[in-house]
Request: fold
Amino acid sequence: MIENDLAGELDAFLAEHEAELIEFRRDLHAHPEIGYSEYRTTSRIALRLEGAGLRPAILPKGTGVIADVGGGPDENPVVALRADIDALPIVDEKNVVYRSLNPDACHACGHDVHTTILLGTGLFLARAAASGALPGKVRLIFQPAEEVPGGALDVLAAGGISSVDRVFALHCDPKLDVGKIGTRVGPITAACDKIKVRLTGPGGHTARPHLTADLVFALGKIITELPAALSRRVDPRSGLSLVWGSVSAGSAANAIPDLGVVEGTVRCLDDSAWHAAPELLKSLVESVTSAYGVTYDLSYERSVPPAVNDGLSTSMIAAAADRVLGPDAIAVAPQSLGGEDFAWYLESIPGSLVRLGTRRPGSADDFDIHQPMFDVDERCIGIGIKVMAATAMTAIGNGCGEDQAIGPIGNAVSQVRAPVEDVTLAGPLLAGPSQAHRPAPPGAASVYSLGGYWAG
Reply:
């Protein structure tokens, strides 16, 4: 029955549970917790999953939940659905009854919505499994610390996507009306790394620059020539860009300083260009500084990779949305140069991130994510549950791992994926063979400074 009338079954489920789920979201919004502190949130999720007959497992650091729905004990999950559960260290300025009770945290990115949608999806799929209408196993991943970032790496290290064929997620989009979703094949969010170049030299009098190293002039060359050189050394379609945000050198007009520092961000939409960026920038800095007799120190701090949506997985989402919402609900999502740690999952297995419309149609509000006034039209919760549940059912029903065209949307667009590096995941939490993933840990395999991950 669920296969034949999925939209009707979802409508019936939401008629029974939507009010409860909206209250669950409001409770999370009133009690936000930042990355790796999501203990209350984790407990609330786990208790509700247990109430539905599922067996949630807490991640080793104590926050975040993984639970499997359907299938036999020895059956591998074929699809994973992921939601992030952490809040931002932002003051909530909304005048609503569910305003944050924590003055140092706010769900200003919609993770409370993502969490509630995945919970509702899990409850629906659990009901389907109990009636024998779920033809496979689905893994629910409630991930901590997306904003840190790094929570995705904890899931990977715990074996969270072991034996999973595909992974899906959604993200609130306040620029898109509620009732619509935005899909995109290929890069949807960017890598965002931080670069710091520190120049040192003997310093001296500005009257005799030939007797010293003109450090400020060399710093100026770094500032102007590195972004220009990148545009000629990298395919422009990669979206690789370097933008400086901070510069400091000297304190007197007539003295050449002995220290200068410039800092900025490197953003990139192409996975292979992102992996090549540190060594390329190192060579460019070296070529500039060697001409002016100054010494450099380059610090390159990794954040998340680009999130590259697989073509077939994106077609599965579009087919699912068409099935439960209708074709008019599907829009093309623009690319964003912001970072999203769901990208780390996509480095390991195919998957797709979809944008969820949260804007009330006709509203004069123009709030963006990461703002103190951010809020959503709560009808998006039901929409999100429909899309995620239908996506899981569509992926299972189409063999999930097989490269085939699906549904009324048409042929999937093929993707070119960079080779996966041989990095083995430990799997102490969940059974199944380990997966390989690409991100290097802080400080790995580098002749220059490579710091820890940061949120960009």
Observations:
- Confidence is low (pLDDT under 50) at residues 401-405, 407-454.
